[in-house]
Structures are given as C-alpha cells and as structure tokens.
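WARN no homologs supplied; continuing
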Amino acid sequence: MNRNSSRDCNVAGPRDFNEPRSGDGLWGAPPPYRPPSAAERAALARVYDDVDAALAADSRACRACGKCCRFEPGGIVLFASAMELAYLVSESGWPSARSSSESSAPESWRCPYQDGDRCTARRGRTLGCRTYFCDDAARARGERIHAEALARIKAIAGPEAWWYGPARTCLDR
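OK structure emitted
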C-alpha cells in the first residue's frame, strides 16, 4: 500500500481528520487529511533530525517503558499539528483499529501506535513524542527545545493550514 496516497489511506479505513467528534473542543475540528508534500516532508524531517540531535544525550533518560504512550492513565495529553499527524501517517501508516471497549474507555486510551511498551512509529513520531521524557530534568530540556521546533513546524505549515490540538482528535477512531 502506498502510504502517500490519501485514496489508499481511505481504503484502509481511517476517519478523516475533519469528521466531527466529541472532544474537538477549543481546537476545533482538524483540517481534512492531506499527505504532506515532498518539500513539507523534507522540512519536517530536518526539524525532527535537529530535535533528535539536540536531545541525544537525554535519550539515556528514557526507560523505554511505554508509560508516556499510555496517555489517560498518566494524565498526559499529546498535542500535535495536523502536518505532524499527516507525516506520522505517511511514515507509519494508519494505526490499527483497536477494540471498541478499549478505545471508548477514556482511562485506557493509549497511543494507537504502541505495541506493548514499544513504539511502532519511531521514525514518524510527532514532536511531542520526541521531546517528552518521564525524567524531570530531561523533560525540562525537551520542553525548551519543543517550543523552538514547534515554531519552525508552524512556519512550514503556514497560517492557512495550521491546526494544533490533541492528537487523539485525529488518531482515535
């Protein structure tokens, strides 16, 4: 399956980013899914490479326990831009559907790309995934780097295409 084709992605059964759902709240519904252009993908990859390099020393602080991907139980809300989520889908495909009992219980919501304690979308993961650490010192550095990188991502997307909100709005189905 060609992950860069919105038609192919729709065949796989994703809900459009712009379908209304409860919880869209302050952020409004995200724009319709649109695969990022080659230029957008390259620019976003550069931002992510810079972030990964800046936080390379902090990667040792990660216990690879998967706790950060189990959002609701940990009180974590992953925010991402529509461009980041489109990049994630273009790199990693649409997440597998989970059982309705699991996805409807808010206390159990976790990243749909998590398999046990393992991330199945490392290459395409969002900025928030790259900059969040359970370790307090590493998290503080990640937050500082996050702010600068987010401004760069916003500039890539442009004001007409900018949407930023809870990733669950796009990924939960």
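The chain has one domain: 6-171.
OK
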